Write a sequence for this structure.
C-alpha cells in the first residue's frame, strides 16, 4: 500500500479511496459509474471530448486513436464506441455456474443489446455526464460493465459504433495480430513491452508476434458463487478406503465411493503394479459411463476425481505414520512392518503432491 500511495502522490494516476465502491469483479459496473461521476465532478473537462474505459492488459496507440476521432467530426456528442460484437455473445448466459450468469428476473430479454467490448471502449463527454448525473439511479448487471453501459446509453438512444482497428487477441481464431491495430487487448505484460519496444524502434507493431506467449494468462473463471450455492452444487461423494495385501504380501488399496447417495462403486488398486494416474483415469472413465448419467456432469466428474486424489494423498500419509497391520502367517511382525513401510514409501513417491492434477 505504501508503494501505491507514493505513486499516487508523485504521478496522480491512481484512484483508490475516491470511488465509492468495492474493487471486485461483481462491482465492475458500479466502479464504471463511480469513475465517470468522479471524472465529471472532479476534473476540469472544458476541452475534453471523450472518456475512455480500458483494462490494464491493452496496448493503446493514443495518437492514432486521436487521429481517428478527429476525422469523425460528427462523433463529438452522443458517441459510444469501441470493439462492437456483431453476432458473438448476443444471448444472455442462463447457466447459474457461469461467471456471466444473468437470471431471467434480472434480464428477461432473449438477446443482449449490441455493446462495445469491455477491455476498451469510449464515449463522448455528454454521455459520461448523463451516467454521472444518474449514477445512483442506473441499475447494473453486476460484473458485466460493458453490457450495463450499453443499456444505460440506450435510454438516450445512443448505440455503439465500431472503431476501426480495435481488437482483442482472443477475439478470433486463429489468434492474429495486425500492424494497423490501434487498441490491442488481452495481452500479457511481456507482450505489451514487446509492442512498445517495436514502436520505439520503428518496427511494425506485430514484430515477433506469438499467439501463445503474447496472450494474457486465462484461468477460465466461473462466476463468484455464494457459499450456500457452492455447497449445494457440490457432488455428494463419500469415500472409504482400506489398506490390505494380497496373498503375496503386495499392497492393495480398496476404495468404496458413494456418489449422490445413489451410486455405490468399489475399486481395487495395487500401487506397485499400476500407476496412480491410470487408476484415476479408470475411475473417471467409469463415472463418465455410469447410469443414470445426470448424477455427474464433466465438471462433477473432475471434482470427484480431484477429491479422490486429495483423499488418497492424505490417507497414504496417515498410513505411513501408523501401524498398518494385515494377517501374514509367514513373515514376522518386524519383517512385515518393514515391507509395509517400504511399499507405502514407494506408493507415496508415485502420488501427486498437490493431489489435484488432471486425470
Amino acid at each position: 500500500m505504501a508503494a501505491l500511495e507514493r505513486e499516487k502522490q508523485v504521478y496522480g494516476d491512481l484512484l483508490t479511496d475516491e470511488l465509492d465502491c468495492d474493487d471486485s469483479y461483481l462491482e465492475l459496473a458500479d466502479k464504471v459509474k463511480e469513475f465517470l461521476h468522479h471524472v465529471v465532478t472532479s476534473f476540469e473537462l472544458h476541452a475534453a471530448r471523450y472518456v475512455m474505459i480500458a483494462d490494464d492488459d491493452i496496448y493503446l496507440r493514443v495518437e492514432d486513436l486521436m487521429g481517428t476521432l478527429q476525422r469523425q467530426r460528427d462523433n463529438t456528442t452522443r458517441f459510444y464506441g469501441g470493439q462492437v460484437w456483431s453476432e458473438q455473445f448476443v444471448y444472455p448466459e442462463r447457466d447459474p455456474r457461469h461467471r456471466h450468469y444473468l437470471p431471467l428476473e434480472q434480464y428477461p430479454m432473449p438477446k443482449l443489446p449490441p455493446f462495445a467490448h469491455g477491455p476498451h471502449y469510449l464515449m463522448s463527454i455528454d454521455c459520461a455526464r448523463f451516467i454521472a448525473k444518474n449514477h445512483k439511479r442506473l441499475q447494473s448487471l453486476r460484473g458485466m460493465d460493458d453490457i450495463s453501459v450499453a443499456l444505460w446509453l440506450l435510454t438516450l438512444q445512443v448505440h455503439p459504433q465500431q472503431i476501426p482497428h480495435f481488437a482483442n487477441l482472443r477475439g478470433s481464431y486463429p489468434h492474429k495480430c495486425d500492424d494497423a491495430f490501434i487498441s490491442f487487448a488481452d495481452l500479457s505484460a511481456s507482450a505489451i513491452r514487446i509492442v512498445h519496444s517495436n514502436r520505439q524502434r520503428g518496427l511494425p507493431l506485430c514484430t515477433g508476434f506469438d499467439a501463445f506467449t503474447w496472450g494474457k494468462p486465462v484461468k477460465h473463471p466461473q462466476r463468484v458463487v455464494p457459499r450456500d450455492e457452492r455447497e449445494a452444487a457440490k457432488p455428494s461423494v463419500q469415500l472409504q478406503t482400506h489398506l490390505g495385501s494380497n496373498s503375496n504380501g503386495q499392497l492393495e488399496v480398496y476404495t468404496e465411493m458413494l456418489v449422490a447417495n445413489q451410486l455405490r462403486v468399489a475399486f481395487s488398486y495395487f500401487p506397485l503394479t499400476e500407476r496412480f494416474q491410470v487408476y484415476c483415469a479408470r475411475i473417471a472413465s467409469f463415472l463418465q459411463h455410469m447410469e443414470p448419467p445426470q448424477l455427474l456432469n464433466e465438471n462433477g466428474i473432475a471434482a470427484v476425481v480431484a477429491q479422490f486424489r486429495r483423499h488418497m494423498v492424505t490417507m497414504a500419509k496417515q498410513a505411513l505414520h501408523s501401524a498398518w497391520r494385515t494377517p501374514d502367517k509367514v513373515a514376522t511382525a518386524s519383517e512385515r512392518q518393514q515391507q509395509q513401510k517400504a511399499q507405502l514409501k514407494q506408493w507415496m513417491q508415485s502420488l501427486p503432491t498437490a493431489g489435484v492434477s488432471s486425470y
Notes: Residues 2-214 form a domain with the Spore Coat Polysaccharide Biosynthesis Protein SpsA; Chain A fold (CATH 3.90.550). Strands lie at 50-54, 59-60, 80-84, 116-124, 161-162, 166-168, 183-185, 237-245, 251-259, 263-269. DSSP finds eleven helices and ten strands in the chain. Residues 113 and 151 are 7 Å apart (CA to CA).
